[in-house]
Amino acid sequence: MKTAFIALATGALLAVSAFAENPHAGHDAHANHTPMTAEAITHEHSLFHLDADWQTQDGRSIRLDQLAGKPTLITMIYGSCTTACPVLVNDARRIDRALPDAIRKNLQVVVVSFDPARDTPERMADYGADYDVDAERWHFLHGAPADIRTLAAMLGVRYRDNGDGTFDHSNLLTLLDPEGRVAERSEGLARPVDPIVKALERLHETPRAEAVASD
User: Could you give the CA distance from residue 188 to residue 130 in angstroms, rounded to a whole number?
Assistant: First the structure.
């Protein structure tokens, strides 16, 4: 199983490697953003098998498998973006706030930067603070370039460094189930929250249904 997963990750990484480049110095104009259509992905394999170490906004080391057991909403952005990325993060916040308390308290939200040279943990902390979210459940992550590319490949996120401090990228929110498998995706900006909210409600009800069935 692990060999198959590694092969899948390698294939997906090759499919998007042309679009993911190393960061370049300098932040100039950020008015232009070319959205890149997300890649099709498999829903069968867990992203929690990825063994990368990430840093949270408060400097803690974390691996994705530490999120196992609860649903996770994940998106990828870069911190100096003033167009699409703030909308994506706000869309995640809209989903979070649309949930009943019993579901919201178990949701984890992960925001990963694909600009590691500039988006340090300290900068991600400042970025997260602007959104007034629950820092216990919201994780703004910094990682190594190779790990960012691998994660993007597995999510189907395409991105391209334009060399001027801006990135073109997919606008994608992905919901992972408690085992780390893709349960729902929402592509685009300012999309309705209902599809992911309903998917979270289904995930919340599944353990109850299984418990009833086992009685």
Answer: 22
